Amino acid sequence: MAKKSVVILGGGPNRIGQGIEFDYCCVHASMALKEEDYESIMVNCNPETVSTDYDTSTRLYFEPLTIEDVFNIIEYENPLGIIVQFGGQTPLNLAIPLQNRGVKILGTSPDAIDIAEDRERFRVLINKLNIKQSPSGTAISLEQAVTIAQRIGYPVLVRPSYVLGGRAMEIVYDDSGLKEFMEKAIEISEEKPILIDKFLEDAIEIDVDAVCDGKTCIIGGLMEHIEEAGIHSGDSAMVLPAYSLASNIIKEIKEITRKISLTLEVKGLINIQFAVKNKDIYIIEVNPRASRTIPFISKSIGVPLAKLATKIMIGKTLKDLHFTREIIPKYFCVKESVFPFNRFPGVDVILGPEMKSTGEVMGIDTSFEMAYAKSQLAAGQNLPFSGKIFISVKDKDKPVIYSIASQFQKIGFEILTSSGTGQFLKKKGMDVVIIPKIYEGRPNIVDYIKNNEISLIINTPSGKKPRKDIVSIRTIAVERGISLVTTIPGAKATLLAIKKLKEEKVKIKSLQQYYKI
Amino acid sequence: MHTKGYLVLENGQIFSGNIFGAHKKTFGELIFNTSMTGYQEITYDPSYKGQIVVMTYPLIGNYGTNKEDVESYKIHLEGFVVKELSKNPSNWQADISLEELFKKNNVTGIENIDTRKLTLILREQGALKAGIFPADENNFKNMIQETINSPSIVGKDIVKKVIKKEPYWWSKTGKYKVLVIDCGVKYNILQLLAKQNFAVRVIPADYPYQEIIKEKPDGILISNGPGDPQPLDYLVQTLSNLIERYPVFGICLGQQILGMVFGGKIYKLKFGHHGANHPTKTLKTGKIDITVQNHGFCVDINSLKDPNCEITHINLNDGTMEGFRHKKYPAFSVQFHPEASPGPHDANYIFNEFWTMICQKEKT
Amino acid sequence: MPKRKDINRILLIGSGPIIIGQACEFDYSGSQACKALREEGYKVILINSNPATIMTDPEMADITYIEPLIPEVVAGIIKKEKPDALLPTMGGQTALNLTVKLSQMGVLTKYKVHLIGANINAIKKAEDRQLFKSAMIDIGLNVPKSGVAYTLEESLKISSEIGFPIILRPSFTLGGTGGAIVYNIDELKESISKAFDLSLNHEILLEQSVIGWKEFELEVMRDKKDNVVIICSIENFDPMGIHTGDSITVAPAQTLTDKEYQNMRDAAIKIIREVGVETGGSNIQFAINPQNGEMVVIEMNPRVSRSSALASKATGFPIAKIAAKLAIGYTLDEIPNDITKKTPACFEPTIDYCVVKIPKFNFEKFPKSKPCLNTSMKSVGEIMSIGRTFKEALQKGIRSLESGYCGLEEKKLNMELESGLKNPIPERLFYIREAFKKGYSINKIYQITFIDPWFLYNLKEIFDTEIEIQKYKNSEIPMELFKKAKEYGFSDKHIAKILGQKEENIYNLRKKYNIKVEYKMVDTCAGEFEAQTPYYYSTYEQNSIIEETK
Prior knowledge:
- The complex is a heterotrimer.
- Chain A is an alpha/beta fold.
- Helix content of chain A is 37%, strand content 23%.
- In chain A, the strands form four sheets. In chain A, strands 5-14-13-10-11-12-15-16 form an eight-stranded mixed beta sheet, sandwiched between helices. Chain A has a five-stranded parallel beta sheet with strand order 19-18-17-20-21, sandwiched between helices. In chain A, strands 3-2-1-4 form a four-stranded parallel beta sheet, with helices on both faces.
- In chain A, β18, α13 (419-427) and β19 (433-434) form a beta-alpha-beta unit.
- The relative contact order of chain A is 0.10.
- Chain B has two domains: 3-149, Carbamoyl-phosphate synthase small subunit, N-terminal domain (Glucose Oxidase, domain 1, 3-Layer(bba) Sandwich), CATH 3.50.30; 159-363, 3-Layer(aba) Sandwich (Rossmann fold), CATH 3.40.50.880.
- Helices cover 24% and strands 32% of the residues of chain B.
- In chain B, α8 (233-242) packs across α9.
- By secondary structure, chain C is α+β, with helices and mostly antiparallel strands.
- Chain C has helices at residues 25-39, 71-81, 92-105, 107-110, 120-127, 129-138, 152-162, 185-198, 258-275, 306-315, 319-327, 390-400, 417-422, 428-437, 442-449, 453-470, 479-487, 492-499, 503-512, and strands at residues 9-13, 43-47, 63-65, 85-87, 114-115, 146-149, 166-170, 180-182, 204-208, 214-222, 228-236, 249-251, 280-288, 295-301, 354-360, 381-387, 518-521, 535-539, 545-548.
- The longest helix of chain C has 18 residues, at 258-275.
- The chains are: A alpha/beta, B alpha/beta, C alpha+beta.
- Chains in contact: A-C, B-C.
- At the B-C interface, β2, α3, α4 and β15 of B face α9, α16 and β19 of C.
- β2 (13-21) of chain B pairs antiparallel with β19 of chain C, so a sheet runs across the interface.
């Protein structure tokens, strides 16, 4: 008697926004099926991966992930069902067409996935559950878009529907920005509308991943972003457990997560992104599938969430799997992103709603500061102990930068600034050296950088179109490998990390030891 | 435009494809070769006389054919089976396409065949008799019958069909004179001997031993060749008469003859060894060479009971005998092809060993 | 030779975060190595900063460190864990660079850590351009003319000796970072300072350009008894001048005669011996002058690489796993071939299909960057496809990319045809198709692209088939043509697009004609031996057995 088999659809080629995390999840799905005595059948076409190793699955089909190629395999193998939750957007895009051809999709129903991805259906759900969402609208013309933006107020976050990795997502600050976006965007999404959300400036962003068996939902992890909302979650640094959020907020976010999961009858994994502003919790998006943070959380809490999710898809409950309580680590785990800017000379390095990172690293320690420091070191960011820091921030950031700058000064750094930032700090009584920007005289900031006199740059971009000279400061810094911080929360965390590193040595501990804490 | 054609197996299975080269039917023992390069050398190898060769690598003819990569004076195999024949070869050396070469040599090939399926059939059932028929014949029953009735290579002397009748010099200069008993010798054997500084003279397989003695050789090489060694008593006889006098080196069929001289038994392998990736272990050193092989028959490793015979090489894939030497006489042989062409050069050093053996004999 | 008994604890260094030029292939190799070493009873201590990997799963190694991959931290781990050996060849350039640093810091000597897999001298000889070049000349192999410069003055002097165009290659970098092709002195001056900065030891190689030559790679393995085997040959569809990570590549090599291939094989064996990679795998790149077959050695990676991951998947031969076993003292003949189980790993895989790798780019994420390819790698991922012919594998590959193409189809092109052909941009395939449409000859396209005519001819055959299909816009496509299209790798969707129909109709017609997809096995041996490991690809073979009468 042949064993029951399950087809796992892989993630296809790596790209920004869909990388190794999804391979990790697919491999775990295969392991889980084997553990439960099912045959696992992997379909993928990416030769770099573990999922396409010949002994990962019971059978491996090295094939394109298209309807035709996948359906051919299904006709040939006649599996119990297929798993589409783990390979990122690639298999999700195939879910409904395959279901229409009579293929059984295991786990969360394609309909639930559709609710999460369809704007209108999602709004109905959110309203029903009484959850806040930032004001928004959809537009298929520039006029419509302008009307909506003016109604909800700039800045707004705009994007085409059905995209992963924040493709073509932008924050626009005025009508002209919106016009520019609409011109570019129409090409990308054709008949699909443009989504416009009120952008929540300076909000704290939160990612939650949970596992649900349709009846019970257990939080895998709640991650607080270091950078403010507006930067793609794939590009932000995150910390688990949260390091600054109030406990009642955390509690409420988890409650909302459970509510949504159970309403959607999620069988498997779900990821929800939130923004917190002025103690209000807004929902940003819901992804009823494995997110890119699953491996990070699994490493942090020592529980293989993707495996559990797979077992749920073939009928197990969380109780069967003995995962009935959230695990909150007694140490801090920081995820930091790694960017390919050095490959694309001249491209501005600021972060935004479109994902740009290719990979990630993790820093673990019993203190947040050290965990963050480790994540920076792992990401190749130098954390200097002394030297000159160049600071140039937008007006809004000036009040906050004062305390950061003065603390840097206190621990022995020399502060160089642009004229605007410098004047502000001088007024506050700080002793700083103002140096010219590129077109303002010599030696200017670029000369300093090239002479290796700068050890750290803090430069927050002003919201609108950045000036050319500012862009070149950033690109030169990247080319020269000088540490560059482009957000205020990032600057704060960097300060804490440097302070910590000056106080104590990096301590190492194995993952297995951390789990015993 | 290519004409349709059929590849018919004696077991009744028929594949359809497109004929290339000569528009005529042909028969032979169907075997598969797993080399990914070197199709031109393979077609010229006299050892394939009587055989239709299936190339397991699907894309054949890519680099065309040229005037340098010839291993004998003509194409010897009976037919050629490929998945996809390249119509537009590309290589700086390319002279004419494989298809044109086949036409010139009046040899039939068939393409667009599921060569993997065919290979699996041969792996399961062993080498089969087969025929290639252009599609103007379409009575399958007759074609199958004709294939069944076609001659088998087992028990036949087909060496005489491929060799030159008269002795000739390959190279007249060299420190030692080696006589090559031609059973279907590949040119690269002769070339490597010459490179080793041998004067090389080629004599036909049925050359009498008395005449050989008159040639006053310093050493004798008995070459590769096609088919079943068992009917070749005359060669066993010749070699028995020479073995005490001259250093002897056997290659492939040559090893089988030498094996028979020392009482070895011959048997037919299921589908033979035909490829360029056979790991062969030198027992004395434990070193592995990737060797080129092309044989359907082989000396039973357990049949060489003569205590003076020492097994020197074995095949790591199936443990078959790949080489032996005689402890008393200066004689040794290998089942693989040290001359390669096509295939890896790992075993070229064997020619050097032959040289050393002759040098040592000289000293004594 | 049995495995080493003098070592027990082995430190394995991962490759860190996914970056361009160093992606999840090292999770694959590291995971295989972990499994292989633990299977043999060794205790594996692993360090990698990347949490998204399988290798950092707590069950993979005995002791797992998710810590920064910097010398001080690794030194700390060595101090704490006291490994007997360090295997540096599984974690890409990151692990090799770290190992060199640790050796320079004296950490390895202090804590008596044996390097297994590759020794420091071999790493240096392969990685240091000058040492490598002179090693090649010592063993009688040709290399492109070149010189090493540490200053601008030196580089100007060298450039006058070798002549433009010149390739700049900084030493000790990742995936050719900072590599550039310069055509004149101004461009040289412009690029050189950046190149110096990127080199860890401030050293640049200026090299005679062999742009337009055919490019090949061999994956080589060696054991400590000096047995050497070639696992796979790879031919680049895109000629020299484009980073191999950004090139479409094909396995096995397609356009080399056996003599040329064996010559390359001999060279590869000489190289791995000369460089002194005692055990494990290496990737060696060659260029061949298409006019006269002249061969030059380009470079060598003394470790598992992106190409070895590809070669493993292309042949079924698990290079990383075997490399790990060789590192602990086994010889190739002592390790079974996992796929056949019965035959040893000491052999050269032979395949009976064609493999195509196509890189995936994300230029759209960086709006100001030019989508132009050169010797600095830009691709963020890749796909591999398998078919019985190059045409089938290529078209399957194109649709695997998820870039909106369902085959070598008609696409709106943004550039002038000639510049699209001239610039090695990611969409060059579609410009070639357009060139056919405009009636360009293969030779003319070759003169612009230097893509070997054999490949171009195959693309032409795909294009010609498209034209044939077009004739049936208003009638049913005949079965023979349909079969041929499927054999050439046309997807239902592509055929549907050509005919202006729905994909579903084509699917239904395929069913009606009873044209069946087949799954063939990847077995390392072209069917010669029975294989145990089920690893498949789809193909269409129209002329299977038509009659069976007993």
